[in-house]
Design goal:
With 396 residues, this protein is an alpha+beta fold. It has twelve helices and ten strands. It folds into three domains: 2-135, Orthogonal Bundle (Butyryl-Coa Dehydrogenase, subunit A, domain 1); 137-247, Beta Barrel (Butyryl-CoA Dehydrogenase, subunit A, domain 2), CATH 2.40.110.10; 251-392, Butyryl-CoA Dehydrogenase, subunit A, domain 3. The chain starts with a helix and ends with a helix.
């Protein structure tokens, strides 16, 4: 009964959100029902096995979650960034691993191809991506080029009708099961922000292989691997955007990616709040539920506050993007605050659970591990502070 009360209360929270239309609320409800039905049992199993359950991909495609930022002519639903963030929050509330898979696929692969690709590229790749025939992966980072992406060394040598890629990439989400990769490589020796080109690389291309799969603390239901390029020839027809201007393309879509990770983090925070609330009402100490103790009430109040504030920041950034307005500062604010909120709520959720919060039988333990990465990937918290400060100081 209490679980049902939380579910109904969550519906009331959404219905009272002044930023959402009726269509937005319907999408939120649909995404929540999908997550409960398809992911509730899968999520802990994926975490335990450290494997993404690929049988979920056709189901994600059926409900349109793999084409939210792509036009209908290519099989997409073109729901926009706000609706995409709503979906991601509801998915992450149950399975953060599946949420990051969707986030990268939509914001960092499908959207760049849809908005910058040639007609041939769109017709060739987008129907595969929106139908679930192929998942997308995005590759900027290297072993020695993380926050300093301009230091990348993966080389792209001009060779007639193709570029030859040589080197490695790291920290690539979904790499072991993705079919289409956006790969950024240095095609000339110009300054750090120049001479970088974006390539669309298909899995199975000669000279390209997926390397080591990382053993991670959290988000274990999503594969994170290195990529190896050993004389990999990529046709010039697979260059996305203009040669040598890939760095600006990467930064542009990282803003969208940060909104997606902000939504993921908000979903984790919401999940922590819900399970902590439920546990506090069931756990008896000193002959009464611990929810009757003021200290627990204050923890829940702060968790609710930070979760709601994170949601507003994420939805504001998403709405600005949909309106075609500048949103880089707002995207960084959303990602910074929401990731902090996720980690705060996870920590407090474990504390409310006490010793039970430290064992794997309780979902809060998984949420605690999943939350940590949200302050690291898609730009660390320190990078977000740098971006925000530059906007505040007028240095952009």
């Amino acid at each position: 009964m209490r679980g049902q009360w939380i579910f109904i209360n969550r519906l009331q929270d959404i219905s009272m959100d002044f930023t959402l239309s009726e269509d937005n609320r319907m999408i939120a409800s649909s995404a929540r029902e999908f997550a409960e039905r398809e992911l509730r049992e899968r999520a802990p199993k994926m975490d335990q096995k450290e494997e993404f359950d690929e049988t979920i991909v056709p189901r994600l495609a059926e409900v349109g979650f793999l084409g939210t930022l792509v036009g209908e002519q290519y099989g997409g639903t073109e729901l926009g960034t706000l609706n995409n963030s709503i979906i991601l929050e509801e998915i992450a509330r149950v399975c953060a691993s599946t949420a990051v898979t969707i986030a990268v696929h939509n914001s960092l692969v499908c959207a760049p191809i849809f908005e910058n690709g040639t007609d041939e590229q769109k017709e060739r790749f987008l129907p595969k991506l929106t139908s679930g025939e192929a998942l997308g992966a995005y590759s900027v980072s290297e072993p020695d080029a993380g926050s300093d992406a301009g230091s990348m060394r993966l080389s792209a040598t001009d060779d007639g009708d193709a570029f030859v890629l040589t080197g490695t990439k790291s920290w690539v989400t979904s790499a072991s099961y993705a079919g289409v990769f956006l790969v950024f490589a240095r095609s000339s020796k110009e300054s750090k922000s120049r001479g970088i080109t974006c390539f669309i690389v298909e899995n199975g291309t000669p000279g390209f292989s997926v390397g080591k799969k990382e053993k991670k603390t959290g988000i274990r239901g999503s594969a994170t691997c290195s990529l190896v390029f050993d004389g990999c020839r990529v046709s010039k027809k697979n260059v996305l955007g203009e040669p040598g201007k890939g760095f600006h393309l990467a930064l542009r879509y990282l803003d969208s990616g940060r909104i997606g990770i902000g939504a993921q983090a908000t979903g984790i925070a919401q999940a922590c709040l819900e399970v902590a609330t439920k546990y506090s009402q069931e756990r008896q100490q000193f002959d009464r539920p611990i929810s009757e103790f003021q200290l627990i009430q204050w923890k829940l109040a702060e968790m609710a506050l930070q979760t709601s504030a994170a949601r507003v920041l994420v939805q504001r950034a998403a709405s600005l993007k949909d309106a075609g307005q500048p949103h880089a500062k707002e995207a960084s604010m959303a990602k910074l605050f929401a990731s902090r909120a996720a980690n705060f709520c996870a920590k407090e959720g474990v504390q409310i659970h006490g010793g039970y919060g430290y064992i794997k039988e309780f979902d809060i333990e998984r949420y605690f591990r999943d939350a940590r990465i949200t302050e690291i990937y898609e730009g660390t918290s320190q990078v977000q502070q740098l971006v925000i400060s530059r906007h505040v100081l007028g240095k952009v």
